[in-house]
Structure formats: structure tokens, C-alpha cells
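Quick one, probably user error.
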């Protein structure tokens, strides 16, 4: 019989990544991710909230990327597998730790944890209205005065869609796989 060991988490980092290197020189990065469930209590009608903390481990190149770009409070999507390991504490007691070994990561939000994306984006007060972004090259060469043509109206037909996958933005350019 086949078995599956797969974990998908979308949550916020509870602390900055901790990176170390093995004797062979491989990067190992540890983070903690908080996931929160919210519901309404049936008896009292109050909103309830429960936060679960997850130990997450990255290896090799993915560990280097995580340690460089992830910061406390940032939202992140990770896919991986569960692993339970046994270790001995300072008091000599054997202990067990269950952690998620990451195989794929998606950084969510913008550079500062917002929703703007990466790169040099203008501050909100400098932002142009939608469809009226300035093109510095066009302005410098005098071509900035030309009017843009409006895109053809959509008929609402599914065949007119550019994407075959409606959830493709989730798997955008910042997804990293090992």
C-alpha cells in the first residue's frame, strides 16, 4: 500500500531564520512558522483563535535563500514532509522533535511583508494611477506623449483567458524547489 508524507503550510515566521553549516559545508536553516485558525464558538458566540507553531528546516541552497530573504513576521508558503528525530538533552533524557523538512518554498507578500512584490516599487504617495505608469525612456525620447491603445473588450468566454491555470499567481516567480 502506498503512503504519503506531505505537509503544506501558509503562515508567518515567528523569528528570524537561524542558519548553520554542517561539517560537509551544507547550509541548514531553522525557522518557526505560526498558523492561526479562527472560528466562532457555538455555545458563547465569541470568536475563538488558536495558533499552532511549527518547526521548519531547510537544507542546502534552499536554506541559504531562506536565511537571506525571510524575516520575522513575513508570510511564507512551504511544502515538505514530516520527520521526527530523537535526540538527547543536556539532562541525559531522550527527546523527540517533529519538524517539517521543506522541499519547496514560496515567499508571500512584498519585500517588507506587504503585498507589493519584490524590486524597487514606488512608495504609495509616489504611485501613478492604474494604467498611467510613467515610462522614463519614453519621456526622455519624447515618445511619452503617444496614447496607449485600450485592450480589446473581453467577451467573458473562458477561451479568452490568458492562463490555463486560474491559481498560477500563487506559484509565481518566487517559488523555490530543491
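Nope, works fine. Designed sequence:
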Amino acid at each position: 500500500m502506498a503512503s504519503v508524507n506531505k505537509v503544506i503550510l501558509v503562515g508567518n515566521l515567528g523569528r528570524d531564520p537561524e542558519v548553520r553549516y554542517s561539517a560537509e559545508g551544507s547550509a541548514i536553516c531553522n525557522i518557526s512558522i505560526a498558523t492561526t485558525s479562527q472560528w466562532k464558538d457555538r455555545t458563547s458566540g465569541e470568536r475563538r483563535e488558536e495558533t499552532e507553531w511549527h518547526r521548519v528546516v531547510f537544507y542546502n541552497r534552499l536554506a541559504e535563500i531562506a536565511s537571506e530573504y525571510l524575516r520575522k513576521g513575513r508570510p511564507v508558503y512551504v511544502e515538505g514532509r514530516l520527520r521526527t528525530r530523537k535526540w538527547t538533552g543536556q539532562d541525559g533524557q531522550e527527546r523527540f522533535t517533529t519538524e517539517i523538512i521543506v522541499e519547496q518554498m514560496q515567499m508571500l507578500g512584498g519585500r517588507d511583508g506587504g503585498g507589493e512584490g519584490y524590486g524597487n516599487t514606488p512608495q504609495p504617495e509616489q504611485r501613478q494611477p492604474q494604467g498611467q505608469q510613467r515610462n522614463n525612456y519614453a519621456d526622455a525620447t519624447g515618445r511619452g506623449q503617444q496614447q496607449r491603445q485600450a485592450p480589446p473588450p473581453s467577451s467573458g468566454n473562458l477561451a479568452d483567458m490568458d492562463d490555463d491555470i486560474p491559481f498560477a499567481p500563487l506559484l509565481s516567480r518566487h517559488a523555490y524547489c530543491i
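The CA atoms of residues 15 and 72 lie 4 Å apart.
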